[in-house]
Design goal:
By secondary structure, the chain is mainly alpha-helical. The protein is built from 45 helices and four strands. The N and C termini lie far apart (97 Å).
């Protein structure tokens, strides 16, 4: 039976596959499933040629496997293979005619979740007619969306299925341009009910569709030009749409509500219930439209002013000068002073801008805002009891820790896992050893995936090799490990034919980790594995003691002492990683301990690292260690003692962390009109006796997602990592690819967690992400600024210069910056207001000609100056005198100049 199937496959006899399958019993077909799966793997192997690649199987062979799969497999085994279903339509139809699988109907109904299918609405109707499937409304609506033709062929299409399209549309609906004119034609010909369709369009606003689909329904609604009578009739749906998550829907509905505002049947009371949410929206156009609509109500209708007035108070959630000014004018003109209005406004008192407060003097209890306090906080300590890392205290603890390390490969769990394996790897007995099985299984499942983070590759490989070593000692207790490993090994063997595949299983020396940078961690892991195998419990030097990436200087001295006492030479890369991670803010105890317990090069090295010796002293037996200590301690200082160490071929920028950069106007017509250029010298990795760990990272190599994790390896000297991320991901403010966004986001998170004063590249990175297109990234930038201001470890002049040089050429919309300032940075404390004033002053000092939305930045500046009771910077005033000639800036410039 298997041989006959292979004969049909190998000879490509597609005309024989259906007759062969027909003669088999149900059980026989079921028995063929493993063989079919094996065939599928064989014919899907990639064959590389000089200029291209293709699968090992022919078109007919793929069709044979597809047909056999459909006939023999259950739904679980067949999976989500929608693409193969129509690779050979004629043969698939023959299988369905002969014996349609009982799971086929469910399978097709679930196709709405597939990325793409090779069948369409017409096929669905034909299968339903033949009884192969019982289509759900979701299926019919989805596939009709993607099939805008032959709508008169089946009576049920327009009678029933079209309304399913409204309820369950495909995400691709807006991209089928045919639907727009088709619907207009159908409505005109009265083939679909106009009022019902208008109602469905409005209901789409709250059906959780994506913004493209929701926007499409809003556009169709507008294009059909509903009459005032129709809008009045649809008021309930219009008002309900005001709660939509999509601003396009809300703005569209507000436009239509304006048309019926003077109609006696307009439901003012109901609308007023929605008004607070509308006026507190983050979308300025929604707030502005809602204010216009509110004013029209006052102008044209008799209403209870207090009811709308209380709702209007929520407009002061926004710190936008235009919004607050408009809201205050409506209040003054139409709403009498009352206790209820005063109370409503009091909730937003702290948010009311200083230039608006006098206007509303009658409505707020006092015209002065509550006095802000100074926030004076001591410098952040890198090492505290709170961020101390909990280490496993037994083999059992280690087994519970390892799954956490596998799930969080780029965190400190990775380091603690390696240290735990060294310490407790041989403390196992017949009872506790069974705890390794679930960990081993998790490691195998993780490493068997196609895309695996390289830290996970190293750790999982280490766990698997450790598990296999235990299997030799405890064969009865761990007999399942052999099966788990064999299956994992088989999966990898099927992938090794792909040229792009890196080996993940086997001796750790042969594992692929994607590039030079990760070789550092691979080598340290190899050292750890040798310790585990030999029973050497001397700890790694680089294991962190405090989150997220710090090593206590006292603990570092103790670890060096253990190597000294055992007369063991530590791994050179492990030494450098440990030096780089050492927390250097409080070292007095460590200095005393080093002077007392260490000797020779260890003692001299650490006393230099801790700053006890201002310049390096002693025997330089390991030049790489000394250079690493120098960079870690003082990246901006070049020590003469190191000049003959043989690192002259490494560009100076990598030692100093200072790179040349500029924002340039590349070309207004180009894809990237304004670019951030940073010059990173090229460096080709050169093997040498005393290899610097830094060389593995700075050498030319492909980029990969682990880059932000290297922040944990260079926390005292982050410039090289930040420069790399800027070069890859921040050369253009409009860059929106997921890969680049994630790199920037993870780097920003790491910078926030490290909590060190910024260097030159730190200011460039922070200033640039202040303008990032991603709201989350901008929020982290603001958090970094807030914390650094609180702890008095930021230079706002340097940060402002970076942002100003970007915005001078309109690198990003100024609105990103002003929104961030208003919602996150303004009025946090006196300190923060003064810091914000300095920041904005230095941004403005870089400007020459007025840029788009400069007015908004000047309004924020005016508010900050008013809060600080100070005047515009003298140099800024000179610029304001020039800018006031611009009509749109005249008013705000004169306010700032107090004219």
């Amino acid at each position: 039976m298997k041989e006959r199937l292979y004969e049909i496959l190998n000879e490509g006899k597609i005309h024989e596959i259906v007759p062969f399958l027909k003669q088999l019993s149900v059980d026989e077909r079921k028995a063929l499933v493993p063989t079919i799966k094996k065939m599928d793997r064989e014919i899907n192997k990639i064959v590389m040629t000089k200029n291209s690649y293709h699968t090992a199987g022919s078109v007919d062979q793929h069709s044979i496997v597809d047909i056999a799969s459909l006939a023999c497999m259950d739904q679980k085994n067949f999976g989500k293979n929608y693409w193969s279903l129509f690779r050979n339509i004629e043969q698939t139809e023959k299988i369905l005619e002969w014996g349609c699988p009982d799971w086929f109907s469910d399978f097709i109904n679930e196709s709405v979740e597939a990325e793409s299918t090779t069948f369409n609405y017409q096929n669905v109707l034909e299968w339903a007619e033949k009884g192969y499937i019982h289509p759900k409304p979701e299926l019919l609506g989805y596939h009709l969306c993607n099939y805008p033709k032959n709508l008169d062929k089946h009576p049920e299409t327009l009678k029933t299925h079209f309304w399913y399209l409204c309820e369950y549309p495909s995400k691709s609906l807006p991209f089928h341009k045919e639907w727009f004119p088709i619907i207009q034609k159908l409505v005109a010909e009265k083939k679909i009910d106009r009022k019902r369709f208008l109602r469905e369009c409005l209901l789409a606003s709250n059906r959780n569709f994506n913004k493209n689909v929701t926007g499409w329904f809003m556009d169709v609604f507008t294009a059909l030009k509903p009459t005032d009578e129709e809008l009045v009739e649809l008021q309930n749906e219009l008002l309900a749409g005001l709660t939509s998550a999509q601003s396009k829907a809300i703005n569209t509905i507000l436009i239509h509500l304006k048309k019926i505002i003077q109609n006696p049947e307009f439901k003012i009371d109901e609308f007023s219930h929605y008004l607070p949410n509308l006026l507190s929206s983050e979308v300025k156009t929604v707030v502005a439209s809602s204010l216009i609509l509110t004013e029209k109500i006052f102008q044209r209708r008799r209403v209870n002013p207090e009811m709308l007035g209380i709702a209007l108070s929520t407009a002061f959630v926004s710190k936008d000068d235009g919004i607050q000014s408009k809201a205050s004018k409506i209040i003054i003109k139409y709403i009498p002073v009352s206790e209820n209005i005063k109370e409503a406004l009091s909730h937003y008192s702290d948010n009311i801008l200083t230039n608006i407060r006098p206007v509303l003097a009658k409505y707020i209890e006092d015209t002065q805002q509550q006095e802000l306090e100074d926030i004076t906080t001591e410098k952040l300590a890198l090492i505290t009891k709170e961020n101390r890392v909990e280490e496993p205290k037994s083999f059992e603890d280690l087994m519970f820790l390892l799954p956490l390390a596998i799930e969080n490969p780029e965190s400190y769990y990775y380091d603690i896992a390696l240290a735990g394996l060294i310490r407790f790897g041989d403390e196992v007995n017949t009872e506790s050893v069974i705890l390794i099985e679930p960990v081993f299984l998790k490691a195998c499942k993780t490493i068997a995936k196609w895309e695996v983070p390289y830290f996970n590759v190293i750790l999982c490989n280490l766990v698997i090799n450790y598990g296999l070593s235990l299997l030799k000692k405890f064969p009865l207790e761990l007999k399942n490990l052999e099966k788990i490993y064999a299956k994992t090994r088989e999966n990898e063997a099927s992938r090794e034919s792909y040229s792009s595949y890196y080996k993940k299983i086997g001796p750790i020396e042969g594992v692929g980790v994607g590039g030079l940078a990760m070789n550092v961690f691979k080598e340290i892991a190899m050292d750890a594995y040798h310790k585990i195998q030999s029973g050497d419990k001397t700890p790694l030097l680089s294991t962190i003691t405090h989150a997220p990436c710090w090593i206590s200087p006292v603990k570092l001295v103790e670890r060096f002492e253990s190597y000294q006492n055992k007369n063991i030479e530590p791994n050179p890369l492990d030494v450098q990683l440990a030096l780089q991670r050492c927390a250097l803010d409080h070292v007095s105890e460590a200095v005393s301990l080093a002077e007392k317990n260490l000797k020779g090069e260890y003692k001299d090295l650490l006393l230099f690292l801790f700053g006890k010796h201002k310049s390096p002293k002693g025997k330089f037996e390991h030049p790489a260690w000394w250079v690493t200590a120098g960079i870690t301690r003082s990246q901006d200082v070049a020590f003469d003692e190191f000049k003959d160490f043989g690192y002259e071929n490494i560009p100076q920028e990598f030692f100093s962390g200072i790179y040349e950069w500029k924002t340039i106007d590349s070309n207004k017509n180009s894809y990237y009109p304004v670019e951030l250029n940073i010059s990173i010298p090229k460096y080709r990795f050169e093997k040498r006796k005393d290899q610097l760990l830094m060389e593995y990272f700075i050498a030319e190599q492909k980029d990969f997602s682990e880059i932000p994790a290297f922040m944990w390896s260079f926390p005292n000297a982050q410039a090289n990592i930040l420069a790399r991320v800027i070069k890859i991901c921040l050369f253009y403010s409009g860059l929106a690819e997921v890969y680049e966004r994630n790199l920037v986001l993870n780097t920003a998170k790491a910078l926030y967690q490290i909590k060190k004063p910024l260097d030159e590249m730190g200011y460039l990175f922070l200033g640039t992400i202040f303008l990032d297109g991603d709201k989350t990234i901008r929020g982290i930038a603001a958090e970094i600024w807030l914390e650094h201001v609180s702890h008095q470890m930021i230079n706002n002049a340097r940060l402002g210069k970076v942002i100003g040089l970007h915005e001078k050429l309109e690198w990003a919309p100024v609105k990103r910056l002003t929104d961030l300032m208003q919602h996150h940075m303004l009025n946090v404390s006196k300190n923060h207001n003064h810091a914000l004033e300095e920041l904005i002053s230095n941004i403005l000092l870089q400007m020459e000609e007025p840029v788009t939305n400069l007015k908004k930045l000047l309004e924020v500046y005016h508010e900050v100056l008013a809060l600080n009771q100070s005047e515009a910077n003298g140099d800024v005033q000179q610029k304001l005198n020039d800018w006031k000639e611009n009509s749109s800036l005249k008013k705000i410039c004169n306010l700032l100049l107090k004219k």
